[in-house]
Design brief:
It contains five helices and four strands, in the order E-H-H-H-H-E-E-H-E. The protein is α+β, with helices and mostly antiparallel strands. A hairpin with a 5-residue loop joins strand 2 (93-97) and strand 3. The longest helix is centred in the middle third of the chain and has 12 residues, at 48-59. The radius of gyration is 16 Å and the shape is globular. The N and C termini lie far apart (33 Å).
């Protein structure tokens, strides 16, 4: 699944007021740090699928010549969209999909984020919550 002309806002339950650049942990890149680097350094270059597959390759240190076959295997199982990305859930980054489905990130405290948030020209979706909602009345 890939969106077009869509802006994914930070998660409703995020307490982040300023975008945070994700960093590697224990000298190893995290999914968030890889996604961030790929998208931030290449705005509107990659689709969601491109970033997910490249992240998989980098995270697992895979250097293969049969990338088409590997990509097909990778996407044989459904993948969550970027509404579930740690970038929107934990780090304060909104993700914009242009008319071709290519993506860029914008910090929650940026002017661009606010412009997308108030624009009638893009569909807005909330990032998925990090925590489950408590049910009313103890049910």
């Amino acid at each position: 699944m890939s969106y077009k002309n869509t802006f994914i806002t930070i998660s409703e339950d995020s307490d982040v007021t300023e975008a945070i650049v994700p960093v590697p942990r224990n000298n190893k890149p995290t999914i968030a740090s890889i996604e961030y680097d790929l998208i931030k350094n290449n705005p509107y270059t990659y689709s969601q699928d491109d970033v997910q597959f490249k992240t998989y390759l980098i995270k697992n240190q895979i250097e293969a010549s049969n990338l088409d076959e590997l990509r097909e295997q990778f996407f044989a199982k459904p993948k969550a969209c970027f509404r579930a990305s740690p970038l929107v859930k934990k780090y304060g980054w909104g993700i914009h999909y242009d008319q071709e489905g290519k993506i860029a990130v914008y910090g929650v405290n940026s002017e661009e984020y606010q412009q997308f948030l108030h624009s009638d020209k893009v569909k807005k979706l909330k990032g998925m919550r990090s925590k489950r909602r408590r049910k009313e009345n103890g049910i």
